[in-house]
Batch of 2 targets.
Target 1
Amino acid sequence: MMHRRTSLALRAAILVLLLLSLYVQVWVVPATVDNTVATFPEFEPLAVPSIIWSVVSILCLQAVLVAGWRLVALSSHTRMIDADAFTWLRWAAGFLIAFTALAAFAFVALSILTYTAPSVILALIGGELITALTAACLLGFMAYNKPIPATPAMQAPLSLG
């Protein structure tokens, strides 16, 4: 069972990351794209696709954070390795794989269009590697460990909080 302070600290960190990602989605991404297009008008055809890609990519990472929140809630009640936890781990791995695919798509699309600024390409490659490695670790964990069957005491519903 996870200590209460650890659970609260993890939930606070997840909440901060969710709020920060929402701020980036709503304000930072559109402002950055507007500034880039104002400075480099040749990037104007990429403005809308880059905003859409950024928002969807951040949504994938937000879904992973929500799964993390749920896993913290489960581990606070000594239910970390049951079937419900594995469901949330699968969701997290799936969204990490989706993010990796989006980053790979962006890498290929930018390469084909020859908009390959080194900083953007390095960020895409770094993001792909980190999320792919994390997803592989989650999938490896789930392949190596099997869920503990739920006992009647474990079947009580849990809230997200």
Target 2
Amino acid sequence: MGVRLSGLNSGMDTEAMIKKIMDAHKLKLNKVEGKRTKLDWQKEKWKDLNNKLYSLYTSKVSSLRFAKAYGTKKVTSSDEKVAKVTGEPSAVDGIHRIQVKQLATAQSLTGSKIEGSEPITKKTSLKDLGFEMGTELTFKVGDKEHTFEVDENTTIEDFVAEAKKAGLNANFDEKQQRFYLSSKETGAANTFSVKESKYGEEKEEGLKALGLVKDDAKHTEPTKVEAKNAIFSVDGTEYNTASNVNSINGLNITLTGTTANYNSADLSKGVTVASNTDVESVYNNFKSFIKEYNSILKEMNDLYYAGVAKGYDPLTSEQKKEMSAGDVEAWEKKIKESMLRRDPALGKVLNAMKTAMQSAVNVGADEDGKGGKRYSLASFGVMTSTDYKEKGLLHMYGDSEDGVYSGKPDKLKKALTEHPEETAEALKGIMENLYNKMTDAMKGTSLSSAMTFYNDKEMNKLSDSYKKEYNTLEAKINKIEDKYYKQFAAMEKAMAKMNAQSNSLSSLLGK
């Protein structure tokens, strides 16, 4: 847009006049912009809330549907220098005995020092150490073999690389002038060997030069540690395994040492392992869920039952200039707090979650659904207070951190201690109900994406509509503004012409 000079001949402030006329037209534009701004704020609120709901759904709610969440084991070992033990939910409660006769080891081979007139480096060729060209070296690791042929370019570094390809840990220490080879895994099944041959005939000259086999002439011999299986017993049953880490009947056992006078038949010997359900851990995990659930529920209640922001619309840039930063922030906060007031999608999620948490399940019924006992969260002292303003927040009997029912007996902890299986079944069923309700609320539709609690597709479509409407209206207003400037410019031009004619006439009459 070029520079506009107006009112030079008419003396009128045409800029101000046009601005006043256009302000009326721009009211429609501001209204559309306000709708789009509100929608953006609404989307921001929903995205934040959706993330919190999805996190609750995938972590706490999902895991609490399974028995594992209620079977956490507390396992202690009387001597962790022999065996360290943890427990799976399937571990049998009680006292266990572990004896260890032998730890599993990996085979290792430390080569004898390579003596020579000059130090050997990783770049030294095997040819210079006496290897014949065409010699084949074969690494056998377990039941697998890897063979490579030595040529004039093969170096110490290449030998190490081939050993690694075969599945070994391998290194040549230039300071010590020795090779170090070892199996990656423990156990007799992971033994290894290195063979040298040419034209099918076994040889040892090259391996002797590398210090990897006994050399009677030099009186040298590499140090070898044999691979062994672990031999140990649990409650009198002996095991022979390739690893020191084993899982037996729900006990995760890591062997770290051996016991004196090993005798698997003597159950009075060895390490004492005590396994019990960790009620405190199970209780705290469920309590943590209730705390997180309440936090999200309170936020949803505040958003859904927020006050009306009647008379509050997003501010235009001109309006913001006339207000302080604090006043602008307070104004916008008032609007944002009401963005999800009575939102249908939010109301649906709220009702679904509250319904699930108030549901009851039948435990111990037969195949026909008869018999058994019905449980709800209230059966375990997890219930709402008498304050209706809390709108469904849950409190726990005996929870010292919750003043509502802290003075009452802790029903949940007592149930987990005295009736762990029934309690776990009941809580699993209620959590399954909540999980299913939340899953249904996140199903993809024509209005919303999958795994989303709100109508994101609908909002995005509406946002595009507002953007299109704004651009169309803005282009129309710009045309109207240009039309007014052209009309006033034409008037100024006509007045300039009249003034010129008047001046000419005056000049003639003056003569």
